[in-house]
Amino acid sequence: AGRAASVAEAEKTGLSLDSFKTTVVKRDEEKIHLRIELPGKETQKVFDAALTSLAKDAPPVPGFRRSKGG
């Protein structure tokens, strides 16, 4: 179960990847399955940015206050 994404979505996030390798794994009539290999630092950078974005959009948890600052 993968996540569908578009070029437009990537442009919204402002994330860019410097070095990665893509391989076509399988082609169907409607889909192309890709394997994308990223260096660990690039993966961590994207993961941190996604987690920060999710945290900003998450509803508050009852009984907890959002921390101020960074």
From TrEMBL:
InterPro entries in UniProt: Trig_fac (IPR005215), Trigger_fac_ribosome-bd_bac (IPR008881), Trigger_fac_ribosome-bd_sf (IPR036611)
Source organism: Aegilops tauschii subsp. strangulata
GO biological process, alphabetically ordered: 'de novo' cotranslational protein folding; protein transport; protein unfolding
GO MF annotation terms: peptidyl-prolyl cis-trans isomerase activity; protein folding chaperone; ribosome binding
Protein name: Trigger factor ribosome-binding bacterial domain-containing protein
TM regions (residue ranges): none
Trigger factor ribosome-binding bacterial domain mapped to chain residues: 21-68
Gene3D superfamilies attached to this UniProt entry: Trigger factor ribosome-binding domain
Pfam families in the cross-refs: Trigger_N
